[in-house]
Write a structure and sequence with these properties.
Blueprint: H1 22-27, H2 33-40, H3 42-50, E1 61-67, E2 70-75, E3 78-79, H4 81-94, E4 98-103, E5 109-113, H5 114-130, E6 138-142, H6 148-159, E7 162-165, H7 172-182, E8 186-190, E9 192-195, E10 198-201, H8 203-211, E11 218-222, E12 235-237, H9 238-241, E13 254-255, E14 259-264, E15 274-278, H10 280-293, E16 302-305, H11 312-324, E17 328-332, H12 343-351, E18 355-358, H13 360-369, H14 372-375, E19 384-387, H15 394-404, E20 411-413, E21 448-451, E22 463-468, E23 478-479, H16 483-491, E24 498-506, E25 512-517, E26 522-524, E27 527-529, H17 531-539, E28 544-554, E29 558-567, H18 578-592, E30 600-603, H19 617-624, H20 640-647
This protein binds adenosine-5'-triphosphate and magnesium ion (MG).
């Protein structure tokens, strides 16, 4: 596919630029000179960032790239992640500082200081040892968003065990596949967690998964909801085994390249892959990017990332980055609309959250629910607000800035992947003049570009494939147990370049705009059109809350654009009739050009999304092409496709 010349030249009409607030620019952690510093000596730059951490043995070499694409960072160095995230802050006199303000969905709370965290993590580490877990063993973790989740991860890191966190919404089959692939020795779970006002069970799913997973020796169960669970001989209760352990444990230094965790990608596109992250480089880049992109001032900021720890965003920006930096964070168990649709804003006001990180899917949901909900809460503490997971539509960016960021907080649109481990492309809040919808520039120390189908950089104004050109500290090291798959998936499309699988364009200033997955790009009458651009055009209509776009086979144009639209709650009037649909089609044509005009627009109540909140266009393509709907097992809500089919009998 050649996207280079034919990508739509104009990205919507939103041309405003947002300069950083003067005081933020003045006192920013990272200033413009960081780009030059890193460009002049990239490895020296990363070596300086690694000095944010405490190493028990210094490294001999920053990067060993003698056997590409298998990287080794900080060769010969030794450190312990739990020591860096917990103990050293206590040793520095910050034991009383809050690490997590935890908020349970029913309204119960727990406050964990760094000293509390050291005690809890030490006890959990001792318990794992008692249960026979040793350095290098794998531990599966299947927990809701309760403090025992980060505690378990850090306990693994403390003894050198490799964790594999599986999102608590996954099925028994999905859990079993991941346990098997990693040959995990124990699973840490709970009786359940709270979701949408009710206890939601987890243990039964683990029982089912583990019945077919012979590698598991024990199931360690946290009591959260108090609901009854079936007892098996392999089960042990957290409150029995962990609570009686010694509060003393000395973290075990491990090699910089020791496996810290495996995390399976969410499977938006295909079979989940076990992405392997290691120790020194991973912690260096998560700590640096959290410091740089959120401008974290650990003494005064309160930080909240609303992701689930089951995704990479939670690993890097709820657990490892913030704790390595000694931050105070909020950790929230539940859903945004329980008990009411203002819950998140209430939490921000309650804790005085100053740095906030969420996903476009959430932002669009809030737009749909209406402006008056956030307006009823005091959000004036917010000073930097971030986005991750999908391209953020310019309309959603501006709404986020206006209604959540009080019109002044910079929006940092952060592009990265499970595979990259940390943020790669993002504005710097004290430096960058933000453009709504653009991730802007690779961070200092990151070398990324947009190339055409021959791997040549496209000129400014051109579009193509996003690639990373030089290894980076938190890069995946391989796919667990599948070196060949690692090389094939990421390093074979273009010689010597990391292929991210996303389309992107460079605007006239050379700033980067993400255009969605390469697989989602549509070919209409010989023109490459990105789903992201058409979706953003639709969302820029005042009556549209969310939109998904797919290319459906068309006898005339090759592919035709089919759109699925959710109107805004406040839209009013007739949002079903022909006239409205025509208005939307004309709006897209006016915004992007006639070639991008959708052949068909369907008004739907919901869109199919993965459990991490990303639109599953594959299923919508089935609807658009009148096929029976494919595998829906990774959908967050399995009933959504029924709702859509009911609504669209004509689409069947
Ligand atoms: P799978 O690889 O299993 O299909 P996934 O790609 O959804 O799942 P993640 O690693 O969580 O799993 O997501 C990374 C992808 O999310 C990126 O490749 C990109 O497509 C998208 N993405 C993340 N952040 C942004 C962003 N700021 N702008 C645009 N796209 C983004
Ligand atoms: Mg992916």
């Amino acid at each position: 596919m050649s996207q280079s010349q034919e990508t739509l030249s104009n990205l919507l009409q939103e041309t405003r630029r947002f300069a950083p607030p003067a005081d933020l620019a003045e006192s920013a952690n990272v200033k413009a000179d960081a780009y030059e510093e890193a460009a002049a000596d990239r490895l020296g730059f990363w070596a300086r960032q690694a000095e944010r951490l405490s190493w028990s043995k210094p490294w001999d070499q920053v990067l060993d790239w003698s056997n590409p694409p298998f990287a080794k960072w900080f060769v010969g160095g030794e450190l312990n992640v739990a020591h860096n995230c917990v103990d050293r802050h206590v040793e520095a006199g910050n034991g009383d500082k809050v690490a997590y303000h935890w908020e349970g969905e029913p309204g119960d709370t727990r406050t964990l200081t760094y000293a509390d965290l050291r005690r809890e993590v030490s006890k959990a580490a001792n318990a794992l040892l008692e249960l026979g877990v040793r350095k290098g063993d794998r531990v599966a973790i299947y927990l809701p968003m309760i403090p025992e989740l980060p505690i378990s991860m850090l306990a693994c890191a403390r003894i050198g065990a490799t964790h594999s966190v599986v999102f608590g919404g996954f099925s028994a089959d999905a859990l079993r596949t991941r346990i098997d692939d990693a040959q995990a020795k124990i699973v840490i779970t709970s009786d359940g967690g709270y979701r949408r006002g009710k206890p939601s069970a987890l243990k039964a799913t683990v029982d089912e998964a583990v019945d077919g997973a012979p590698s598991i020796e024990h199931v360690l169960v946290v009591r959260r909801t108090g609901e009854e669970v079936a007892a098996h001989e392999r089960d042990v209760w957290w409150h029995d085994v962990v609570e009686r352990q010694s509060e003393e444990h000395t973290p075990e230094p491990v090699d910089a390249e020791h496996p810290l965790y495996i995390l399976y990608t969410s499977g938006t596109t295909g079979k989940p892959k076990g992405i392997l992250h290691t120790t020194g480089g991973y912690l260096t880049q998560t700590a640096y990017t959290h410091h740089a992109v959120f401008d974290l001032k650990p003494e005064t900021d309160v930080y909240w990332c609303s992701a689930d720890i089951g995704w990479v965003t939670g690993h890097s920006y709820i657990v490892y980055g913030p704790l390595a930096n000694g931050a105070t964070s909020v950790l929230y168990e539940g859903t945004p609309d329980t008990p009411h649709k203002g819950r998140w804003w209430e939490i921000i006001a309650k804790y005085g959250v100053s740095l906030f990180y969420t996903a476009p899917t959430a932002i669009r949901t809030f737009m749909k629910w209406g402006d008056d909900i956030p307006a009823a809460h005091d959000l004036s503490s917010l000073r930097v607000i971030g986005s991750v997971g999908e391209p953020i539509n310019p309309e959603a960016y501006v709404w986020y800035r206006e209604h959540i960021g009080a019109g002044g907080a910079p929006v940092v649109d952060t592009w990265w992947q499970t595979e990259t481990g940390s943020i790669m492309i993002s504005p710097l809040p004290g430096v960058t003049e933000g453009k709504p919808g653009a991730a802007m520039r690779p961070l200092p120390g990151i070398v990324a570009d947009v190339v055409d189908d021959r791997g040549e950089p496209v000129p400014n104004g051109g579009g193509g494939f996003l690639v990373v050109k030089e290894p980076w500290p938190s890069m995946l090291r391989t796919i667990w147990g599948d070196d060949e798959g690692y090389v094939k998936t990421y390093w074979s499309r273009f010689e010597g370049l990391y292929f991210a699988g996303d389309g992107a364009k460079k605007d006239e200033d050379g700033d980067l705009w993400l255009l969605g997955r390469v697989d989602d790009v549509m070919l209409v009458s010989g023109h490459n059109i990105s789903t992201t651009e058409v979706e953003s055009a639709l969302v820029s209509h005042p009556k549209v809350a969310e939109a998904a776009v797919v290319g459906a086979t068309d006898p005339v144009t090759g592919q035709a654009i089919v759109s699925f639209v959710i109107p805004r709650g406040s839209a009013g009037g007739d949002v079903e009739g022909e006239e409205f649909l025509k208005e939307l089609r004309d709006h897209v044509a006016k915004t992007l050009g006639p070639i991008a005009k959708p052949r068909q627009i369907m008004i739907v109540p919901e869109l199919p999304k993965t459990r991490s909140g990303k639109i599953m266009r594959r299923l919508l393509r089935d609807v658009a092409e009148n096929r029976s709907i494919g595998d829906v097992s990774t959908l967050a809500d399995g009933t959504v496709m029924d709702l859509i089919s009911e609504k669209l009998p004509s689409a069947k």
